[in-house]
């Protein structure tokens, strides 16, 4: 998952290459960028970063992305396969100059194997689920005729209930 199924623009490739070099770590892509329901310039790009020192990585990202510490939200995720509680940080980055957005998830290295397993479980989905995701994304991103909360709930339903998978449980524990 260090590469993407869907093609990144040159600006996106350069951004991720520079960030990976700056952090001296690999970036792992997951979510719609790895499936057929990705909408360029609309869908965000989901990226996992695994590190032995989350605080150091956050400080490096703050410097590289000109972000504030309060932009990084601590959360806990109950992993479906192992029932392990994985702690991490989420950060939403919008690159206005090149019109793309990235949701970064920063985790301790000790969670890497289990988290990559969870993400891979939603990488190859049935054709009918892909079509449904494309339809709701088209209605949301292109036609703007469904509200954000309905879009989010529909995506969750398709990626969990419809695929007979457990819903992911995330709780922000640092809402500042």
Automatic annotation (TrEMBL):
Membrane is among the record's keywords: yes
Entry's transmembrane regions: 125-146
Keyword annotations from UniProtKB, A to Z: Membrane, Transmembrane, Transmembrane helix
Pfam families with a match to the protein in the record: NTP_transf_2
InterPro entries hit by this protein: NT_sf, Polymerase_NTP_transf_dom
Coiled-coil intervals, chain numbering: none
Domain Polymerase nucleotidyl transferase: 19-100
GO molecular function annotations of the record: nucleotidyltransferase activity
Record's protein name: Polymerase nucleotidyl transferase domain-containing protein
Organism lineage: unclassified sequences, metagenomes, organismal metagenomes
